[in-house]
Amino acid sequence: MTPMGEWLSAREAFHCWQDLRLSSLLAVPAAVEAQSDCSEYISGGPGNPINGTLIGTQLRTETITVSEGVSGSAGVVGGNAGGSRTVTVSYYVGIYRMSNRDIYEVRCDNYTLM
User: Fold this and answer.
1) Does the pLDDT value for residue 4 go beyond 50?
2) Domain ranges in the chain?
């Protein structure tokens, strides 16, 4: 229903859906800028006494294809509407020499082990 309490026709509903989908596509940047702040030291945390020292960094770039769309028959819109877009993501990886002499690669924006 519209704010005035009226029902939309199937055509109006479809155009509203297209506008919403287009605005959501425009809100996502095509390339995400990398965060380069790798911590100089890392530790294993509680219960894990290992620690490491940053010995290098590396910029990595990945290209991801995201499929978008709606399929099925929802009464208002039937069939398949959608597409795909490509997003490029760059991030830094810290290379750490750990206290046990192992070398770990850790993503610097969220500190997950690579």
Assistant:
1) yes
2) 30-107
